[in-house]
Each structure stands twice: as C-alpha cells, then as structure tokens.
Specification:
13 helices; alpha/beta; 343 residues
Length: 343
C-alpha cells in the first residue's frame, strides 16, 4: 500500500505556487506571524466569530445548473447544482460554486452528509463514487468543490494552487472561505433534512472540522485527516515544496504552526459541536502522517475510530469498508434520534 502511494506521488503535481507574496496580508492588512497570532488568538475560545458565515453578503441562491468550466459530467447519477459563494474573490471561476446532490427526491433519506474533499484534487471521480455508494446505502450526500479547485480553478493556475501555499495568511483566509461555504450549506440543508453530517477527507477534514466548531451537526466523519497543521505541512510527503518555499521566506515549523493555530483542531477541537464523531485513520500515512491523525483524535476527545491498514492514497481500496461503516453509524444514530434539536 505504501508502494502505491509512492508511485502516485511521483505522478502527482508538485509545483510551487506562482503567486508567492513578498508580504503576508489578511483581509488586506499586513501582519507578521507574531502580530497575526497576537490579534487573532483571542478567537481560540470563540472560533465561530472568526469563521464568519458571511450571511451579510447575500443568499447562496442554490439552484440547478452547471459551472461553465465543469466540462466533465459525473459518471454516477446526481443533481448538478450551483450557488454563489458567500466570499467574493477577484476570480469569477471561484465565485460560482458547483454542488452535486446525491438524493432521490422520491426516497429522500433522513440524513444528508456534506462531503469536503482534499487539496489539489484534479477531479472528483472517487468522491462521486463514494457519495453514490452512500446514497445506495440509504444516506444522501452533497459533494462540495473546494475554492480554487477543479472547475473553480482560476485561468492559468492548476487545481488547488492558490488554496494551500507558502502564502501563510492567504491560506488561512482560504480555509475561512471554504468553512463559510460549508456553514452556509449546513444552514441550507437544515431546511431539507432531519439530520446533518460532515465527511472531511484529507485537508477537507480541516475545514469540515472548523465548520463543526461553528455549526451544530449530528455526525462528523474525519477521514485520513489530522491536526497540528504546521507539522503536517512540514513533514508530509506532498507538501515538501511548500516547506521549501516557507524556508526561503524564513518561516520555520514552529512559526507556521503558530500562524495556522487559528485553523487547527489541536487548538480548537474542544469546540466541536458534532453529536456523533467517528474517525478513519490511515496507519501508514506519509501525506498526513499518522501521528498527526492521532493528535486530531486526541483533540476531539478520543471518539470511536476505525484504523485502516493503508497509506494515504491507498485508502481508496478501503472505500467500500469506510462508506459502509459511515452508513451504519448514521442509521444507528437516526434510530437513537441524534437530531440537532437535541444538541
């Protein structure tokens, strides 16, 4: 399984972000890492105030439609929708958000799980298949698209290039951006379903966890994801180019961890508002090293977990097991009345 990951790593794209900034900006203001930490560490006790849902920017307008750059139709049935991101950027591609809804209107389930994919994914084939599998098992799914990824990729960049990079504070801003979209979809889907849950895969687990700190949900399933974000980036096999760019800027692992602590469940996990949590840990992972997956497990209060005898990308081969276990957990939760009204 680790050999599979090594081979996949050789063919996957590893390219320095083409928009490396000479200064660090957040909301248009320049900060050193120490200044940023000093100002925003107050939100460690109220992350929902930092991770705004940006409701003031207007409704999502979730509607049927296809993103103009979404040229490849899913190979499994789903309802293709779009909505306006609550966070505006200078890139129109990212401001319109594709959303794939896996549901049969005549047999809608009690629960929907919103699926947040990982970083740098060039397509959603795996996630689409997993969502379709969950629907067949009796649990509806909604598949999100991460800012700056796939059809949301700005012209001239590659998928995910602008999302995580050595632009430390821009990365925090992007995490807040995606978290806002997840929060707004949770609010939207509360009008449609009795129960709401989140699946956060790899880096998507970072933002799904942040959303669960801000919005009460019934289920949270962290999948091959972790905590202590600066160390994940510093030691993870696919982020070594980010580390090199950071070192050129004079940023070390400790400073990076400090800057990203506002996005880190090792710091914020005590605020998780999920009624039921189950974590899926890849035991031989070098992308999100297993030690940092265990740190997330500790931060979330040692919830039930399923250990997978795989590395990061080879978790694909455990997809049937994981999706089946998630479906069983949801159905059991429904039977016990794990609704958000009881939170």
């Amino acid at each position: 399984m680790t050999a599979f990951d090594r081979c996949y790593g050789l063919i996957s794209r590893k390219k320095t972000c083409s928009k490396l900034m000479p200064i660090e900006l957040f909301d248009g203001q320049e900060y050193t890492i120490d200044e940023f930490y000093g100002k925003f560490s107050a939100f460690f006790e109220k992350p929902w105030d930092f991770y705004s849902d940006f409701k003031e920017n207007g409704p999502l307008r979730l509607r049927d439609g296809v993103h103009p750059r979404d040229r490849v139709a899913p190979k499994v049935p789903c309802r293709r929708m779009i909505f306006d991101s609550p966070v505006a950027t200078e890139w129109e591609e990212t401001n319109l958000v594709p959303f794939k809804w896996f549901s049969d209107p005549e047999r809608r389930s009690k629960t929907i799980l919103l699926f947040a994919p990982g970083w740098g994914r060039s397509n959603q084939t795996v996630e689409e298949n997993w969502c379709h599998q969950l629907q067949k098992l009796g649990v509806d799914c909604g598949l999100l698209t991460v800012p700056f990824h796939q059809s949301r990729t700005p012209e001239g960049s590659f998928s995910g290039e602008y999302f995580i990079s050595a632009n430390v504070l821009w990365t925090v801003s992007n995490f807040r951006h995606f978290t806002a979209e997840i929060r707004r979809l949770i609010q939207e889907m509360r009008q449609e379903y009795e129960y709401i849950g989140l699946i956060g895969m790899s880096s998507g687990g970072f933002q799904a966890a942040l959303a669960s700190n801000c919005e009460p949900v019934d289920f949270f399933f962290p999948l091959i994801t972790g905590g202590q974000l600066g160390s994940i980036t510093w030691h993870g096999s696919i982020t070594q180019f980010v580390r090199r760019d950071l070192e050129k800027k004079g940023i070390d692992e400790i400073s990076l961890g400090k800057a990203w602590s506002i996005a880190d469940e090792v710091v914020l996990g005590k605020h998780c508002k999920a009624k039921t949590i189950k974590q899926y840990i890849s035991l031989h992972d070098r992308v999100v090293p297993t030690v940092y997956q265990l740190k997330l497990w500790e931060a979330l209060g040692r919830p039930p977990r399923l250990d997978l005898a795989c590395a990061h990308y080879s978790s694909f081969f455990h997809g049937n097991t994981v999706m089946g276990d998630i479906a069983n957990t949801v159905i059991e939760g429904e039977a016990h009345g794990y609704g958000t009204d009881s939170l």
